Amino acid sequence: MSRYYNNRNRRRGLVVILSVALAALALFFVIRMLWCRCHSGGNPVCENEEKPGVESQYFLDICIDSMEVVDGTIACNQFLSTLLSDYGVGASTIDFIARNRRNVFDVSKIRGGNHYTMLLSNDSLETPLYWIYQIDQRNFAIFGLTDSLSARLYRKDSELRMARTNGVITSSLWNAIVGGGGDPALAVRLSEIYAWTVDFFGIQEGDAFDVVYEQEYIDSVAVGLGEIYCCKFVHRGDTIWAVRFEQNGTCDYFDENGTSLRKAFLKAPLNYSRISSKFTHSRYHPVLKYYRPHHGVDYAAPSGTPVYSIGDGVVVTKAYQKGGGGNYLKIKHNSTYTTCYMHLKGYAPGIAQGVRVRQGQLIGYVGMTGVATGPHLDFRVYKNGTPIDPLKMESPPTDPVPAEAMHGYGEEVRYWRKALLGKEIPAMYVPELDPVLSDTTDDTLNTVGNK
Q1: Spatial distance between the Cα atoms of 318 and 329, rounded to a whole number of angstroms
Q2: Cβ atoms < 10 Å from Cβ of 9
Q3: Which of 121, 207, 434, 445 is deepest in the core (most CB within 10 A)?
């Protein structure tokens, strides 16, 4: 009898051990499944992670080993309802996403021509698991179509690489940059940096540039610009340096002597236009048909072109001049200078008499109000109440690099002079690691390298 009970207890012990082992094994697989779900954007199976030497495949951060990937493009005037219903997504699911996931991404803002990706189960059912909309090159909206109908944003990481572009202008700065393989946005950035020192309406054939900057990449595709570190611009025979220098947490651009490129006034109050009439004491008026003074510069531009204040100041007049300048603004910048903007189509929001404006602030739009044969801006400058030629106006610079910072700034200038003589793109500037800063001479100022 005792042997019988001993055998029964032994069998019970084996059953308990076996049950614990099975429970532990089941718990292992549950934990493994949850880990895989957590690390694959919610998809429960990462098949290749179980196979030694085989890497799992991911789209963004979602493991797609057990999924079918279908790429598409949003058609013109296509709605999300018709797009998802073609993949078998129910109307209630689509309605829930549209109504309850606007805090993540408003699906009414999808645009024709943008790309999307559908992730389907890799079986006979082809169940839709995710719909992923590419907002732009960097940002994606990911919508889970099962369980909790999740929604989240994904942002791709970018990489900054040093780049260099130089060239000689034959038609326009934009054409020269693009023709040399540079980022087209460089033309805009350089026009902003040199807005106070270079008249971009007076660019001449033979003007040249050499610029070192950061180019931003996503998946080896250039998507934008980082910082511009240094540029030299040869304009009408003069070389104008622009070196980026940071002090007290603020960055600005200075010439080789530490003088700021940021002047009290912009060179022109608008972009992308041409000069149709210059300052003169006797001009034949195309409408009135007689000669009279024209104490301004006419910039021909399409109606609605933005007009900006060339400097800080206060709006002293906002009015309509019958039989003459139409809608116009006068801005008093200081005790010496006042500017006038005429024939405006309209004014920017908030612009009124007595309002203070900043340099580069939008103040109105090109029009042809008053006496005008076509849309243009009649821009005038007054010095001590007397009209002067805006194209010949001298503008005093703002604060230079302070004396106590000139040693550090001088190192940067010498570094970039030497760098722009070399054929290789310079690495990120680290002055304390540069052993040959003093080997550069001033003759590099008059040289523009060939790419």
Answers
A1: 5
A2: 10
A3: 207
Helix (H, G, I), strand (E, B) or coil at 258: coil
Q: Give pTM, 2 decimals.
A: 0.62
Selection from 281, 295, 278, 390 nearest residue 333 by Cα: 390
CA dist 25 and 41 (Å) reads 25
Residues 297, 246 share a domain: no
Q: Categorize the per-residue pLDDT at 442 as very low, low, confident or very high, splitting at 50, 70 and 90.
A: very low
How many residues does this entry show for the chain?
Answer: 451
Question: What count of other Cβ atoms lies within 10 Å of the Cβ of residue 345?
Answer: 18
* Residue for token pair 């001088």: 410
Residue with tokens 């009970």: 5
Same domain membership, residue 243 and residue 308: no
CATH number at residue 97: 3.10.450.350
Give the span between the Cα atoms of 225 and 415, in whole angstroms.
22
Q: What's the pLDDT tens digit per position in 364-378?
A: 999 999 888 889 999
Question: Are 328 and 343 contacting, i.e. CB atoms less than 8 angstroms apart?
Answer: yes
Q: What residues does 300 pair with on adjacent strands?
A: 274, 376
Same domain, 284 and 181: no
Joined tokens for residue 60: 């963004």
What is the residue range of 78's domain?
A: 54-155
